[in-house]
Specification:
- The chain has 491 residues and is α+β, with helices and mostly antiparallel strands.
- It folds into two domains: 46-239 and 411-482, no CATH class; 243-403, no CATH class.
- The chain has 20 helices and twelve strands.
- A six-stranded antiparallel β-sheet has the order 7-8-9-10-12-11, with helices on both faces. It has a two-stranded antiparallel ribbon with strand order 1-4.
- A hairpin with a 5-residue loop joins strand 11 (385-390) and strand 12.
Length: 491
């Protein structure tokens, strides 16, 4: 102890640090076990939940009304935007599924699990896997959306991915045999990659990633010439989706100043939402909020953020499941009017998993999202951070922040043939295994899965059964719209 620090003061400082909220610790029990003990743990988990039992799905007798689940979520959202959410969810069973993570979380909680946990995406459907840019400007393939991230049974993410493939396959007219092959290949890829990770050193797992080179090599092995051309086109398109592209599409010049262009109800500039507030004072207040968010970034990235100035903000409707949450885009400029940075500021509420796994250990829901994303992604956006802010209604809400577009490329399931969807599913399976291996006990999970295809076959059967349930739930929403229980709007 330094001589100039009194013992009582030092002891008080230690107590204060102990009382401060601490981020979750993910591996305290794993590091105390040998690999052999972890293998034994995984094999013993088969008694708790036999691998074949994952084929099971029957709706519980007291299963909540699916429309009521969605309505409870909508109650906390912007009422003028909720009909857009319902409108998008009515379009197809797959669009419904994208907005129904809360419904499936309750269903998954009643299914068997091994008792082995990992950091979950919480909404691991196939469209939440896409091309992204790394800070080193490499094009990578990874999970994208972490609004529902929370630790929980690793099987839940795999089951949500598997069901999404069947639902998308049905909409494409794939046969039951083709859908089964797609799911089995996807789950096999997850299982085999997890078994590979079980034999790697910790740092080898942490540094692993899927970049464009590996993606193209897999395409050459699995896809025909048409599929490879579509991949090349998708890669080129992803590289064009950056701040400059968003700037040209979303902004216009007004009296020599750049502003976000209005496109109501999907994009509404803050000046239109708060017409009676003096613009200079409003921008100063919003600038203070961004400054506070900047403190959650690493010092070098905070320095970069400080080289930009805020010039406009707008509310923006995004996705399907997120419609109605408070989501903003912020336009910042750097050296001149041709040096834009567009950030997305997105409301973070409690994860839909929390009712079934327990609440997050993070005190700020935005930090929960950021912590889960950093843990699961191989490389995260350099501007990924969080904030807490008071709204115009006086309520305090949590947010996370990231770039709106940074080389993002998204798949088009409706354009996939069975062979292409299988290749994409395998890629998603490998990616999900890497994400889970970073936080979960990869050795125990691999031992539980084993070398056979029992789990693969079980998930193929589960996915079909859950796709049936999703179709019934989608029909319930259509009925609710038809009877006037809820209002739907196309936008």
């Amino acid at each position: 102890m330094p001589r100039n620090v009194p013992r009582k003061a030092a002891a008080a400082a230690v107590r204060r640090r102990a009382e401060e909220p601490q981020p979750p610790r993910h591996h305290p029990e794993v590091v105390r076990r040998t690999p052999a003990e972890r293998v034994a743990l995984g094999r013993a988990a088969r008694s708790r939940a036999p691998r074949s039992s994952h084929a099971e799905y029957e709706p519980a007798a007291d299963r909540p009304d699916p429309v009521a689940v969605i309505e409870r979520q909508s109650a906390a959202r912007l009422p003028e935007l909720v009909p857009i959410r319902y409108g998008r969810m009515t379009e197809s069973p797959f669009r419904f599924y994208r907005g129904a993570a809360a419904i499936m979380a309750g269903d998954l909680a009643a299914t068997p699990d091994s008792g082995i946990t990992a950091q979950l995406c919480g909404d691991a459907h196939l469209l939440n896997f896409r091309l992204l840019a790394s800070p080193e400007r490499r094009l990578m393939f990874d999970i994208n959306d972490f609004d529902e991230t929370l630790p929980g049974p690793w099987e839940w993410d795999v089951k949500r991915l598997a069901a999404s493939l069947v639902i998308a396959g049905r909409e494409n007219g794939f046969t039951a045999r083709q859908r089964s092959a797609i799911v089995r290949a996807t789950v096999r890829a997850y299982r085999e990659r997890m078994r590979g990770y079980a034999g790697l050193r910790n740092l080898e797992v942490w540094y692993d990633s899927i970049d464009i080179g590996l993606l193209q090599a897999q395409a050459a092995r699995l896809l025909d010439k048409r599929g490879q051309r579509k991949l090349a086109s998708g890669v080129s398109k992803a590289r064009s989706r950056d701040n400059l592209q968003a700037f040209s599409k979303l902004t216009r010049e007004v009296d020599g100043e750049h502003r976000i262009a209005a496109a109501p109800p999907l994009i509404v500039p803050i000046g239109d939402l708060l017409p009676d507030v003096e613009r200079g004072a409003l921008m100063a207040e919003l600038g203070d909020l961004l400054d506070r968010y900047g403190r959650t970034l690493a010092s070098d990235r905070r320095c970069l953020l400080e080289s930009f100035r805020l010039v406009d903000m707008a509310r923006k409707v995004v996705g399907v499941g997120s419609v109605g949450t408070r989501c903003w885009i912020a336009l910042l400029l750097g050296r001149d009017g041709r040096d834009p940075l567009i950030l997305q500021v997105k409301e973070a509420d409690e994860s839909v998993l929390a009712a079934h796994t327990g609440p997050s250990e993070y005190g700020n829901q935005g930090e929960r999202v950021v912590g889960g994303q950093r843990l699961m992604q191989a490389a995260s956006d350099i501007f990924l951070g969080w904030e807490r802010a008071d709204g115009v209604d006086g309520r305090t809400r949590d947010f996370y922040v990231r770039q709106l577009r940074d080389w993002k490329g998204i798949a088009e399931p409706a354009e996939m043939v069975p062979r292409g969807m299988q290749a994409f599913g395998e890629l998603c399976g490998v990616t999900l295994a890497r994400a889970h291996a970073r936080s979960g006990d990869r050795i125990a999970i691999a031992a539980y899965l084993g070398g056979g295809d029992t789990f693969d076959q079980a998930l193929a059967r589960f996915a079909e059964r859950y796709a049936d349930q999703n179709e019934r739930d989608h029909a319930s929403l259509l009925d609710a719209v038809a009877t006037g229980r809820v209002s739907a709007q196309s936008a």
